[in-house]
Design brief:
single chain, about 325 residues, alpha/beta, Spore Coat Polysaccharide Biosynthesis Protein SpsA, Chain A, 7-stranded mixed beta sheet, 4-stranded mixed beta sheet, 8 helices, globular, transferase
């Protein structure tokens, strides 16, 4: 049996770790409450419908050079009013995050209270003055034509009466009921249909941020996101489908560079190498798909209903797979090529 002094030291370490976890949880709740209170005071009629805000989420310090370059490209787009860089790694020192080449002047860097993926969808009235936002990963960049097309598609799907429209995105996924296992499964787009778009790059109405973050009914579902460190995009698809009564809209235009796709050649990553192995877009193999199927099942159980709806087409000719561009053999090609 360990000596009493060791037991006491172990107890103090556990107590300290527990205190840190409780403090982080309290910070999350404070940030959420403040964001929701501010959103309640926002006048939706004053939000600009002709421009777009981009919310980029970063965590990996190794990706900072890439994130700065991506933020600069978004900031230069004529339809982008503002870029918000949401940094979710609380241990990163300011000198590393804000030093060096830095971010472009039109990119506001905001530290999240914790690494919670729910932070991606907090309403941010002080930063977001547009009716639509593009939520994107830190390793994906559409060309100018692709981003414009996605934004115009979002505008076209808005309704004359108040209420959110569907999500718009470039990367589709689906779900189906696995009868042999008695649970929902998360899958690639099924032949001719899909039911979700990913936060690799999605365009959505600003009002959906409030619906996701501020609904007491979704508190348990947001807790699942925190527990799994995954599935925030799936939950947003639940929220959007329920609010709009429609499935998402898949679009295709231009090119979308995807550094995080595991189908990139490692040698083709250049000075921004390592993007495949870290960060928000890293693919977790079969376990990742299992986790996301479990999330769908858990969200369904918690809500008591299945709001996801299938969509059956896209706005342009289908390519038969993801639209991300990967580096292969020294060339940029579609990742599934």
């Amino acid at each position: 049996m360990p000596p009493r002094s060791y037991q006491l030291l172990l107890f103090l370490v556990i107590l300290e770790l527990t205190s840190v976890a409780v403090a982080a949880s309290g910070e999350d709740e404070d940030e959420e409450q403040a964001a929701c209170a501010a959103a309640n005071r926002t006048d939706a009629a004053r939000l600009r419908a002709d421009r777009l805000t981009v919310i980029l989420t970063g965590y990996s310090e190794r990706r900072l050079p890439l994130l700065r370059a991506i933020a600069g490209a978004y900031a230069a787009h004529p339809l982008v009013l503002a870029v918000v860089v949401l940094w979710c790694n609380p241990s990163t020192p300011d000198r590393l995050l804000l030093g060096g080449a830095g971010f472009p002047p039109r990119a506001a860097v905001r530290r999240a209270a914790s690494a919670s993926l729910n932070s991606r969808f907090l309403p941010r009235p002080s930063d977001v003055r547009t009716a639509a936002v593009a939520v994107a990963d830190d390793d994906v960049l559409p060309d100018a034509a692709a981003l414009s097309f996605a934004f115009f598609a979002w505008q076209q799907h808005q309704r004359p009466v108040p209420g959110p429209g569907p999500l718009v995105g470039f990367f589709a996924r689906s779900h189906h009921l696995d009868l042999t296992r008695g649970r929902w499964a998360y899958t690639a787009p099924q032949p001719g249909r899909y039911s979700m778009v990913l936060t690799k790059l999605m365009v959505l109405g600003t009002d959906l941020l409030r619906a996701y973050s501020c609904s007491p009914e979704l508190a348990a579902a947001r807790a699942v996101v925190d527990r799994e460190r995954n599935c925030e995009d799936i939950l947003m698809n639940f929220v959007a489908a329920e609010a709009s009564g429609a499935g998402p809209v898949l679009v295709e235009a231009g090119g979308v560079r995807d550094w995080g796709d595991p189908r990139n050649d490692a040698a083709g990553e250049g000075p921004r190498g390592g993007a495949r192995d870290v960060g928000l877009s890293a693919t977790g193999g079969l376990g990742h798909w299992e986790t996301r199927g479990r999330c769908i099942t858990e969200f369904h159980r918690l809500l008591g209903r299945m709001p996801l709806r299938y969509s059956y087409g896209k706005l342009v000719q289908a390519t038969g797979g993801d639209q991300g561009l990967c580096s292969k053999g020294g060339r940029l090609v579609h990742c599934d090529q």
